[in-house]
Amino acid sequence: MPVRQDKYNRLFTSSLILSSPTIAVLFALVILHLIAWQAALISGLLILVGTGYILNSHYSHVERLKEYITALRQLKGRDTLPEPPSAVGSFLYPELNSTLSRMAQERQQYRRQLEDVTDGNEAILRSLPDPLIMLGSKRKIIRGNPAAETIFEDQLAGKELSTVLRNPSILNTIDELEKSQKDISRFVDFKIHGRVERYLQARIARMPEQTWDGTKVIISLHDLTSAKRVEQMREDFVANVSHELKTPLASLMGFIETLKGPAKDDPDAQQKFLKIMQDQSERMSRLVSDLLSLSKIELLEHTPPTSVTDLGEAITTIIEGLHTQIESKNITIRRDMDDVISVLGDLEALTQVFQNLLENAVKYGHQGTTVTIRCKSYGPGSQGMRRLGRPSVAISIIDQGDGIPREHIPRLTERFYRVDAARSRELGGTGLGLAIVKHIVNRHRGVLTIDSEVGRGSTFTVYLPQAAITEGQRKPININEVNF
Predict the structure, then answer these.
(1) Which residues form a coiled coil (predicted)?
(2) 65 vs 336: which has the higher pLDDT
């Protein structure tokens, strides 16, 4: 009601103002006795009513135009334009409808073009393989593309850069560029520390002008990890091969000289030496194979796998493959895997991890003992959740062997580190198995823990991220014992 009353007040006031000059003339004519006051009164009322009628039609048209403009403002880029209001009854400016309609069509077309450009830019930004971070004032992150959020494992928008990238060289460079008035860029090489080290090069560029979303500085990151690892792999391979192959090569050369000389006509000595030479050759072959495998794993360590692996099936396959070794030592394999859950991981790589750990458990376990494989899932608030920061699965391999002294445990995953070098070589070990396990677990963003007690045995536990699966996909495996 107040709106309607306001409309009538405005209409009456406007009509009175517009009619006032004519009414004033009629009043003057009455004073000059040129017209009767009755005729003047009737003429004035007719003029006032006619003006009000014209203005009422105009105001109604303006109200319809106002509603039309409001509807236009609420449109999105792909919405259909509303119909313009009818110009019927508009005496003052009937062309206003068509003018507004053309303007709305041009605006809609321009908006759609802008949205197409924006969608294209968004698609390009999302598909960029290199991380990209856009900064506003005071190093505030406006946004980051999916590659950037993957590498920092976090949502970036709205955060201060130093909370996700604590590198003084980069932060100081950004501050200098913000104060500069020139459109320049700089390069900074840096390293991200963590379970897996990554080498990156940052290109920091200042925008000529602040963009509509507030972006002033753009940081593009180029991953140099692969190139650095290839270089390091080459250096390590040469150093390790030259060191580890020196002894077996010297032995082979010595036996060859002996076979050519003193043992030339001694069949028994020849058979003995040839057996030793075969063992040394096989050891060198295993060593080179493990070195190549380790180098390949390190090369891919910075790229976590995204596939899903069923650990129950993988471990069953490994046990079947170790049938001969298990049978020769009369080992019992006990599987405590009621809670087996699929994990995020590469099947081939995880098979290599548990192949190595189970083979070690059988190799170093005492004759006639039990090797236990235990699997347990950890949800929110549990130990495994705290270790990885997300739901996890812990797979433990428990043997009953001699155990490992405490002082040796921190160094077990180092290359070529052996608690008992002579026994390790005698059992065919290269000293690289646990190093391979560590790097594969790191690539899976997992954790390897080792616990051991001398005289009782050792426990190797691997924590891996759980894969998101439904209840129907779970495959419980009851506790059972497998004897060979």
Answers:
(1) 93-120
(2) 336
